[in-house]
Structure formats: structure tokens, C-alpha cells
Amino acid sequence: MPRNLVKPERFSNYALAGGGDARLTAWMHARLSIAVWAAPMQRTWALNDVETLAIAAFTPPINISKNPGKLTRLSRARAAMAAEAARWRQEDAR
Which of the listed residues 5, 65, 67, 78 has the most CB atoms within 10 Å of its CB? Predict the structure, then answer.
């Protein structure tokens, strides 16, 4: 289903039905970690380049766009869920 029911036209942004968002959140809490880094104010390189290098080094499983080890199965699943959200109708929410 679309993530935003008021403006459901952005089908690449979808919600998982039937408690799926909660299960995904639990999976992420159990398996993923996050870190922050204060970028120097005086830098000569783009943060996008640092992001690309970090993704290549750590290959986070749910990052598809820049991950050299991306899971084809995950890409297909996301595409299928976006297509399902595109077929969603307001009546489905009732």
C-alpha cells in the first residue's frame, strides 16, 4: 500500500501491510547498526564520494543503489512491492 494515503501517487514509497513495517523495523534493529561522523568543514571532497566508499566497504544489505553486493532478490522484491502499491485503490484501505 502507498506510504502516504493522502497522496498515494509516489509508488516507490510504500508501506508494508499486515504488520510488515513493524517486522522490518524489528529485523533492522536486530541486524543493522548506525554510526555518525562529523565531516570536516574545510574539505575538498564530496560527501557523496565518502558515502559511496562506505557502502562499498560495508555492503549494507538493504542499500541497493550503490551497493556492489546488492541482493538481486531484494531488488526484485522491492520492484514487486512498488508495483503492488501502484495497483492499490482507496477501497483497499477500508
Answer: 67
